Every structure is written in structure tokens, then in C-alpha cells.
Amino acid sequence: MEIKKISHYAILSALITAISLVVVIPIPGTNGIVTLCDVGIAVTALLFGPIAGLFVGAISGGFIDLLAGYPQWIFFSLVIHGLEGFMFGYFFQQKNVAKVLGLILGAIIMVVGYALATNLLYGFGAGIASIPSNFCQAGFGVIVAIPLVKILKKATGNRLKYNS
């Protein structure tokens, strides 16, 4: 992998981590948090493709948990947000119907992944209880990312393209 790409992924991960730590909503019933990370992961994946989505999703998801004081979630966030970012980016490169499918599948991966992880850590009831907040976080991320990507492409003269 090129040094330039690694640098871009690192900068995007740091930016998403910082923005996500501005708004951290604790969820006491699941010992988890709701952040804005899905917005950044979706924007990155939609603009720069699946590999960028994978790396930036995994790195920012893990760092958010570490810095917010939720280390028990780091491994799960690496996997779940990485897969979510990959799914967003992979399908967004396809035809129109597949673009929507990718956004839905990415959100489902996040919601189901955290429900399973919460079930593993805290039990079935907590896993079920995590679904509404994770659904809101994933849905908000997708809903905000779509117009933001359009604005960013228009502002850059559509020079932002897939490079992964």
C-alpha cells in the first residue's frame, strides 16, 4: 500500500475519531456509546472506496472506544466498523440499486454486529436493548453522509474519486 494512501487513511481516522469524541452519548443498559463515527465512515467509504472504508472504519472505531474509556469494545469495533465501511464503499461503486443495498447492508452489519457483541459481553437482554440506539446511529450516519458526499464532490469539482 502506498505511503500516500496510508497517510490519508490515518488523517481521516484521526478526524473521524476527534469529531466522534465531541458527541459521546453513553448507553447505560449496554455499557456502550453512540457517536457520530458512522457519518465519517460512510463519507470516507462513499468517496474513496471499500479499502478506505475498511481501514478508516476499523481504526477510527477502535480509537473511539479506547479514548472514550470503553476498551472492552475495541476488538468488536475494529471488525464491525471495518466491515461496515467496506460494505458501504464496495456497493457504492456499483449501479444505483446496489448503492442503496450497500448502505442498508452496511447499517445492518453495524446493528447486528453490536447486538451480537453486546449479547456476548452482557447477555441477551442487553444485546436486544442495543438495537434501537445502534439503528439510530447507523441510520443517522447514512442519512447525513449522502448529502455531505454530494456537497463535497460539488465543492471539489467532482475530483474526489475512488482510489482504493
UniProtKB/TrEMBL annotation:
Q: Does the keyword Calcium apply?
A: no
**Which keywords has UniProt assigned to this entry?**
Membrane, Transmembrane, Transmembrane helix
GO cellular-component term (any):
membrane
Keyword hit for Protein biosynthesis? no
Q: Which domain of life is it from?
A: Bacteria
Q: Where are the transmembrane segments?
A: 6-27, 39-64, 70-91, 103-125, 131-152
**InterPro entries named among the record's database cross-references:** ECF_substrate-spec-like
- Please name the PANTHER family in this protein's record: UPF0397 PROTEIN BC_2624-RELATED (PTHR37815), UPF0397 PROTEIN SPR0429 (PTHR37815:SF3)
Name of the protein = ECF transporter S component
* Taxonomic source organism: Enterococcus dispar ATCC 51266
